[in-house]
Structure formats: structure tokens, C-alpha cells
Specification:
- The complex is a heterodimer of chains A (115) and B (113).
- By secondary structure, chain A is mainly β.
- Chain A is built from no helices and eleven strands.
- Chain A is globular and about 40 Å long.
- Chain A starts with a strand and ends with a strand.
- The chains are: A mainly beta (115), B mainly beta (113).
Chain lengths: 115, 113
């Protein structure tokens, strides 16, 4: 059973370009969470999605950032007009609804570098 | 809002000795979960141990154990018989049932030979 997959693992963009980060959850998982880790900091929650629904986007910046989790295919975190401050590692985690709590399984992360 | 505080940015320990990493949290919830994650240089987030708040018994996982003090909102991690492979960043995290996770800023642990 493959774990959570994220691609690309490394992404370099110039200021003003768009970045698209992909997350394929574990098989059978219908919940996806995105986190951002700035250098020397812990992970910060960004958004929680279920298939075709955004459940909680309280951690998302108000502008330039969007996320989706379509019925088919991976979850996408999209950053428009990137700036240097967007450079960070972006982690995706997935879970299912069974059990007392939604244990989250993390992907390897995508390291975004904005030049 | 829940906050998680790790007051030790860096710690070191000699191989085979014991080290304790501190974590405190703030919440008004009565039911929640606490976690310790390890992040080696590869950046992969590896679950070390978890504790369910309604359980009084401290969780144990091989060389890793926690001291969970619910009233004090404290959740420390003890690593016994430290090994070189334990060198990593360690993050404490809080989660409401079926919710997102809130992480502390991390403690960088170095195990010295």
C-alpha cells in the first residue's frame, strides 16, 4: 500500500510565476490536509479538504493561494504570483474516517524555492 | 485557538543516555490527541508516539515514552538509551478529533557518540 505521494519533491520558481503542488493520498483516504513549514519552524496548518469540498481553510493566506481535491485525481495546492516569502516545504497529509480519530499520514513534502 | 510550545530549541545527549523533551499546550477542549513527530534531515515526518487525552496511562513505544500531565497541559517525551539515529528535529503536536494538527516550533536533538 503506497503511502502519501507528493510531487514534485523540489520546485523552483521565479517571482511572479505559478506553483502547483500535487498530493495523492493513501489509497482509501478521502481527507487531505496541507501544511507549510518555513525554515527553522514547525508545520503550520493551511487547509483541510475532503473530496470536492473545502472543510477548513482558516490557515490559508487570503490571496494567491488556493486548494482543491477533485473527485478524481490528486489534491492540488496552487500558489499564484509567487514571492520569495513563499519559499518553504509544503507537506500534505491524508486520513480516512475510520477509528476514533483521523490519524494523519504525511507525505515527503515539496520544497518550493522562489528565486 | 490551540497553541503548542516547545521551550527547548536545541538539546544534546550522549549516546546510550536518556533525554527529555518538553512540550506544553493550551486548549479549552477536553477531548484531544497529542503527538510527537520526528523529522530527520530527509524532512519526512515520522510519528514517534501519540497520547489520547482521555487516557490517564502514559503512552510507551519501545525506547520512547511520554509524561502526560493533563491538568498542567504538559506532554514531555523521554528517549531512553539514545541512539545516533535519534538525531533529528522533534515536534510536539495537538489535534482535536477529526481536525487539523497544531505543531510546536520544534526541538533539535543531537545525539553525540
Amino acid at each position: 500500500n503506497a503511502g502519501v505521494m507528493q510531487n514534485p519533491r523540489h520546485l523552483v520558481r521565479r517571482r511572479g510565476q505559478e506553483a502547483r503542488l500535487r498530493c495523492s493520498p493513501m489509497k482509501g483516504h478521502s481527507h487531505v490536509y496541507w501544511y507549510r513549514q518555513l525554515p527553522e519552524e514547525g508545520l503550520k496548518f493551511m487547509v483541510y479538504l475532503q473530496k470536492e469540498n473545502i472543510i477548513d481553510e482558516s490557515g490559508m493566506p487570503k490571496e494567491r493561494f488556493s486548494a482543491e481535491f477533485p473527485k478524481e485525481g490528486p489534491s492540488i495546492l496552487r500558489i499564484q504570483q509567487v514571492v520569495r516569502g513563499d519559499s518553504a516545504a509544503y507537506f500534505c497529509a491524508s486520513s480516512n474516517t475510520s477509528g476514533r480519530y483521523n490519524e494523519q499520514f504525511f507525505g515527503p513534502g515539496t520544497r518550493l524555492t522562489v528565486l | 485557538a490551540q497553541t503548542v510550545t516547545q521551550s527547548q530549541p536545541e538539546m544534546s545527549v550522549q549516546e546510550a543516555e536518556t533525554v527529555t523533551l518538553s512540550c506544553t499546550y493550551d486548549t479549552s477542549e477536553s477531548n484531544y490527541y497529542l503527538f510527537w513527530y520526528k523529522q530527520p534531515p530527509s524532512r519526512q515526518m515520522i510519528l514517534v508516539i501519540r497520547q489520547e487525552a482521555y487516557k490517564q496511562q502514559n503512552a510507551t513505544e519501545n525506547r520512547f515514552s511520554v509524561n502526560f500531565q493533563k491538568a498542567a497541559k504538559s506532554f514531555s517525551l523521554k528517549i531512553s538509551d539514545s541512539q545516533l539515529g535519534d538525531t533529528a528535529m522533534y515536534f510536539c503536536a495537538f489535534m482535536k478529533p477529526r481536525g487539523d494538527m497544531r505543531f510546536g516550533a520544534g526541538t533539535r536533538l543531537t545525539v553525540k557518540p
